Amino acid sequence: MSTIFSQIVEGEIPARIVYEDETTVAFLDANPLAPGHTLVIPKDEYERLNDVPDDIATDLYATVHRMVPVVEDAVDADATTVAFNNGEEAGQEVPHVHCHIVPRFEGDGGGPIHAVAGDRPSLADDELDDIADDIESRV
Ligand code: 5GP
């Protein structure tokens, strides 16, 4: 069973496609958070960013990079929030990697990325050092 976004890629369900190339496609979100809310996806189905091969990740970011200023210009936005919900616990509902480009306007009542997480942890310096070391050792 393919994802709803794969069905858009295949032309099986309609979408307002605004850009397409060999490996990626951008289309308007059907339930927009703001005028111009655009989704950018890899055409192939990967559930999470962690699953995307390097070459497709490069293509995906290139399309995001291309679309952000275009979307801002199109709706005369002051700014954009650009984000992935990467995994169900982070709010991802469609299991097909997608980048949200959400136009933002002065006084729109929205919040920053900092508002998406729960309570902030209180971490001591040695805990932060351990986390940084652990991440660095895995790269
Ligand atoms: P998520 O919560 O997975 O990060 O976001 C999924 C997004 O896909 C939502 O913003 C939702 O409005 C959008 N969406 C869900 N189904 C469709 C669809 O069939 N067509 C389009 N264009 N957008 C969809």
Automatic annotation (TrEMBL):
It comes from Natrinema versiforme JCM 10478. A motif (Histidine triad motif) lies at residues 96-100. PANTHER family: ADENOSINE 5'-MONOPHOSPHORAMIDASE HNT1, HIT FAMILY PROTEIN 1. InterPro entries: Histidine_triad_HIT, HIT-like, HIT-like_sf. It comes from the Archaea. The active site is at residue 98. Residues 4-111 form the HIT domain. GO terms for biological process: nucleotide metabolic process. This is Histidine triad (HIT) protein. One of its GO terms (molecular function) is catalytic activity. Residues 117-139 are annotated as: Disordered. It holds the Pfam family HIT. Residues 124-139 have a biased composition (Acidic residues).
